[in-house]
Design a protein that fits this description.
Elements (H helix, E strand, L loop, with lengths): L1 H14 L1 E10 L9 E9 L2 E6 L4 H27 L10 E11 L2 H12 L20 H16 L3 H4 L5 E6 L2 E6 L2 E2 L4 E7 L5 H20 L5 E7 L10 H20 L3 E5 L2 H11 L4
Parallel strand pairs: 8-9, 9-10
Antiparallel strand pairs: 1-2, 1-4, 2-3, 5-6, 7-8
Helix pairs in contact: 4-8, 6-7
């Protein structure tokens, strides 16, 4: 019995993801020095994963509309830096507070737990009991969840098409440009990613536009010729929207699919992370 317990313990130990984690702290006004936790980072096997603030209503309560603009800008800058696997702060207003060791059964589980415990700004302001709250999923969270799924589904082939650096960075006379193409093998495969799980159609259009631009640019730069954009779709969440919103979102997705096919880029979509991971594995010819 002791041997069995020991064996089971070893199997559980092997299945855990482990690494160092840190809080991402923002100083809105360097003169006052006040710091706000706006995210968490987790370094696992050399990969930097992060979860950043995406709900800014509490920032608005503190700093007004201007505060939302600055918070969105800062999270965008930090997100780009972390996608390059950089472990140092990109700007003076941001500090990485190394907080120690963390482990869990998936990267998403670790990030979610740390984020919920240390980033109170993300807690939603209460709405009336009869109001239906739409639960959005941003692309960074989607990517983290997909990495967890693909590690299981692709197994030993995982690193063949999911590089540690989720973006390609191109420098020219106009500066540095980030192309978020997290699924690629530096031979033929070039895959982009976008979440469309939003109630705001403008946000959906922006995500799709960026994904299309990044994949098309990567193909033009010779990074691959088997191109695709993978999108997470709303699923049951869409039932919380009115008919006009639903039709607008569906039309946007149809137009995107048509445009990408005209450009020779396939579109893979699903309403679940697991289903989308299956689409990606099929595209990458995972055995």
């Amino acid at each position: 019995m002791n041997n069995l317990e020991k064996l089971l313990g070893q199997n559980t130990e092997k299945s855990l993801v482990k690494g160092e984690w840190f809080n991402i702290r923002w100083t809105p006004d360097l003169a006052t020095g006040e710091k706000l936790n706006i995210g968490v980072g987790f370094v696992e096997n050399g990969r930097v994963h992060s979860r950043l603030l995406s709900y800014f209503e509490r920032v608005k309560c503190l700093y007004g509309e201007r505060g939302i603009y600055h918070a969105e800008l800062v999270t965008s800058i930090v997100g780009e830096s972390l996608r390059q696997n950089k472990k140092s702060s990109p700007i003076p207003q941001i500090a990485y507070d190394n907080s120690g060791y963390a482990q869990g059964f998936s990267v998403d589980e670790v990030l979610t737990s740390l984020f919920e415990q240390t980033v109170p700004l993300q807690k939603k302001i209460r709405v009336p009991g009869n109001a239906k709250r739409f639960n959005s999923v941003n692309t960074d969270k989607l990517y983290t969840c997909l990495v967890d799924e693909l590690k299981i589904k692709a197994a030993l082939q995982f690193e063949e098409f999911v590089p540690a650096d989720s973006s390609i960075f191109i420098k020219d006379n106009l500066g540095s440009h980030e192309l978020f193409v997290p699924f690629r093998d530096n031979k033929n495969l070039v895959g982009g990613l976008a979440s469309t799980v939003y109630s705001n159609v403008q946000r959906i259009e922006l995500n799709l536009l960026k994904a299309a631009r990044d994949v098309e640019s990567a193909v033009k730069l010779g990074k691959g010729n088997k191109a695709s954009v993978f999108i997470l779709m709303p699923g049951d969440e869409i039932e919380k929207l009115n008919r006009e919103q639903i039709m607008s979102i569906e039309n946007t997705l149809d137009k995107f699919d048509w445009h990408m096919n005209k450009q020779g880029v396939s579109v893979g979509g699903h309403t679940s992370v697991s289903g989308l991971a299956d689409e990606i594995c099929s595209w990458a010819n995972v055995a």
